[in-house]
Hints:
alpha+beta; BirA Bifunctional Protein, domain 2; Rossmann fold; 2 domains; eight-stranded mixed β-sheet; 15 helices; 16 strands; binds adenosine monophosphate
Amino acid sequence: MAIQAVRGMKDLLPSEAPKWRFIEATAREVFGSFGFSEIRTPILERTELFARSIGEETDIVSKEMYTFEDRSGDSLTMRPEATAGVVRAFLENKLYAVPGPHKLCTIGPMFRHERPQKGRLRQFHQLDCEILDDAGPQGDAELLVMAAHLLERLGVRQVTLVLNSLGCPECRPVFKQQLQDYFAGRQGGLCEDCRRRLATNPLRVLDCKQEGCKEISQGAPLISGSWCESCGEHFDQVKRLLDQSGVTFETDPKLVRGLDYYTRTAFEFKTTQLGAQDAVGGGGRYDGLIEALGGPATPAIGFALGVERLALLLEDRPEWQQGPRLFIAALGEEPRDWAFGVAQELRRAGIWVEMTAQATSLKAQMRRANKLGASQVLILGGEELGAGIAPLKDMANGEQEDLPLDQIVDRLKAAGA
Ligand code: AMP
C-alpha cells in the first residue's frame, strides 16, 4: 500500500488554502493594529520546558506530548502549545531588558497525541498572542477585545466568550483545600486520574470529562467564593472594560483550563457548532510562569485560537476561488510564441495569465479556460496575430470585443491585477 500521512496529521489542499490564507492575513492585520509583533520559535524544545510550565499532571504533559530522545541523547518535545516557547525566547533573548508591555504573536503548528476526530488533530495550528509584562486588567480586556474583533472580522458567529478567574497564589490555596476537603469523602466516584490529581492539582478534577467526575463536581465549592479582594477587583475591572467595549461574555465559575500555569483571568471562546470540540480558543493570565521558568517576576496573559476550528466555522467565499484574469487560447505556433511572451509581461505586472503549451483545439482550450475559472479569454489565431487585433471574451457574460493586441498589457494593467 502507498505510504499514507501520519494519523491525525492532515494535508492542507489547494482548495482549502485560500481560507487559511484569509484567516492568517486577517489575524496578522488585526494583531498588527493592536501593536503585536511577530515572533517565531522552534517547533522542538527541551521537554522540561513543557513539563515545568504546563504542569506534569496535565493531560498534555502526562499523555499527549510527542517526546523523543534525539541523537545526542537530549529529551526533546514537539511543542504542544506556543506560550512556553514564547516565554523561553523572551527570557533567552532578554527581551525584558526593554520596558514592557511586550505584545507578541505567533502562528504555526502544534502537536498533541490526542484521539483524532472532527476538529481534533495531532498536528493542528494556532494563532497565538501574548502580552508580557502587563499586570492588567486593561491588558486582559485589550486581549479579549482583540480576539472578539478578529472573530467578527472573520465573520465567525455563534461563539461565546466564557470567563472565570482562577485566583492567585494568595487565594487559590484556600480554594484548593476546600476542593480537597469536598472530594476527599467522594473519592470512590472519581476516575483514576482524578484520584491522583486530587493531591497535586484538585482544580483539574473540575475539568474532567468523565461522567462520574462531572457529576461529583456539580456540588463542589466555587472558586468565586474564595477570591481575595484584589482578584475580585481585577475580575470586576476586566468585565467592566469588556462591557464598555461592547464585547459580550458569560461567566462560568467552573471554567478551569487544561494547563496549570494560569492565574486570575481564564477564558474560552466556545461554540455549539463543532460537536464535541466546543472550544475555538482559550487562554488566560499566567503571572507566575515567567518567574517559575527562571526569569524576572513578569505578569502576562495570552490566548490561542485554533485555525482548523476557525476554518470549520467559516463559509467559503467566491473571491477565494478566483481563477486567472486572462486565458490566451492560441492557435498555431506563431500565436503561441507571441502569447508566451505577453504572458510573461503580464505576470511581471502581477496579473495571473494562463495558456496551454501544447497545440490543442480551440474547444479543448475553452474547456480548460472554463475549468480554471478564467475571467477573460483572448482567442488568437494566425490571422488575428497578423491583423494585430483579436476577440476578447468575457467568460461571465459571454460578451466579446475586439482588442488591439498592442493594447493588451496596458488594458489589463489599467483594470488592476
Ligand atoms: P488549548 O491550548 O488546549 O486551550 O487550545 C487552544 C485552542 O487550540 C483550542 O480552543 C482549539 O481551537 C485548538 N486546539 C487545541 N487542541 C487541538 C487539537 N488537538 N486539534 C485541533 N485544534 C486544537
